[in-house]
């Protein structure tokens, strides 16, 4: 949303009404929704040049608030130990294909090519629902922060630890940001993240879900070249032979 844009004959109410002695803060999503709703209420709804645009912005911000609430509830449940992982043998290529299919519209909008390079016979021992959640987050980010016409590649490497990587051809992330990427609400580019609808919690959720599998998620990036996130899962699990396991997420 371009808050600096001017709208003839329409005055948008201030996003924050605070006394001069109150601490200054950035306008929140709710501030924006309330301000635009009040503007419509005081006459802008009768202005056909702007009313639909304001309603579209309200809808966009309401959807972003919904995503933020969902992510807060999810992370809170994980931290409270109320989320369990139910691990089983997962056919990885088919699972990745489902995730790629669900994000194909977003990718085509930005002319991004999604490449599922996982071998047909690749399997991992994981909770399929939680693995979909992790990969959806990483692939969605790779689409959003890629160059137009770029590529997102998903690969698998088996071994003592199974590795699932999501690599983009975007602008990369400056090295001084890498250590903090998985912190809650941390954003490399706050303005761009807001524009793209990010909540700042997705990578924190991925980190905790990976740890719940006795694994981890790591990141490598070269500024100007691209970024690769890798989910590492234990490769030698005795319960693979037709069995499954279920246990709560334990955070340290």
What does this structure look like?
By secondary structure, this protein is α+β, with helices and mostly antiparallel strands. It folds into two domains: 29-79; 85-248, Histidine kinase-like ATPase, C-terminal domain (Heat Shock Protein 90). The chain is built from seven helices and eight strands. The protein has helices spanning 29-41, 51-79, 92-102, 104-109, 128-144, 190-196, 202-212; strands at 84-91, 113-116, 123-126, 151-157, 161-168, 216-222, 226-234, 245-248. It has a five-stranded mixed sheet with strand order 2-4-5-7-6. Helix 1 (29-41) packs antiparallel against helix 2 and helix 3 crosses helix 5 (128-144). The protein is globular, with a radius of gyration of 21 Å. The model is unreliable at 1-27 (pLDDT under 50).
Number of distinct beta strands: 8
Low-confidence stretches: 1-27
Proper CATH architecture of the largest domain: 2-Layer Sandwich
Class by helix and strand content?
alpha+beta
Question: How much β-strand is present in the residues?
Answer: 15-25%
Radius of gyration: 21 Å
Q: Give the integer mean of the pLDDT values.
A: 76
The CATH topology label of the largest domain is Heat Shock Protein 90
CATH superfamily of the largest domain: Histidine kinase-like ATPase, C-terminal domain
Distance separating the two termini: 38 Å
What is the CATH first-level class name of the largest domain? Alpha Beta
Task: Write a concise keyword list for the protein shown above.
252 residues, alpha+beta, Heat Shock Protein 90, 37% helix, globular, disordered N terminus
């Amino acid at each position: 949303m371009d808050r600096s844009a001017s709208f003839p004959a329409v005055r948008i109410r201030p996003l924050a009404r605070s006394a001069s002695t109150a601490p200054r803060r950035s306008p929140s999503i709710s501030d924006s929704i309330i301000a635009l709703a009040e503007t419509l209420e005081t006459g802008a709804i009768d202005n056909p040049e702007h009313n639909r645009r304001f309603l579209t912005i309200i809808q966009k911000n309401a959807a972003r608030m919904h995503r933020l609430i969902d992510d807060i509830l999810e992370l809170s449940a994980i931290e409270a130990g109320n989320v369990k992982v139910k691990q089983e043998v997962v056919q990885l290529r088919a699972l990745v294909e489902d995730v790629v299919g669900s994000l194909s519209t977003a990718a085509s909008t930005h002319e991004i090519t999604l490449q599922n390079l996982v071998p047909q016979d690749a399997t991992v021992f994981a909770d399929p629902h939680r693995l979909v959640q992790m990969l959806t987050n990483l692939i969605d980010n790779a689409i959003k922060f890629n160059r137009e016409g770029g590529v997102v590649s998903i690969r698998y490497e088996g071994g003592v630890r199974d590795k699932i990587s999501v690599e983009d051809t975007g602008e990369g992330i400056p090295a001084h940001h890498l250590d903090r990427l998985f912190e809650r609400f941390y954003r490399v580019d706050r303005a761009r993240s807001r524009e793209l609808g990010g909540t700042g919690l997705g990578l924190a959720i991925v980190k905790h879900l990976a740890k719940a599998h006795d694994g981890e998620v790591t990141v490598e990036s070269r500024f100007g070249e691209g970024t690769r996130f890798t989910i590492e899962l234990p490769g030698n699990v005795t319960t693979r032979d037709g069995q499954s396991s279920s246990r709560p997420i334990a955070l340290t």
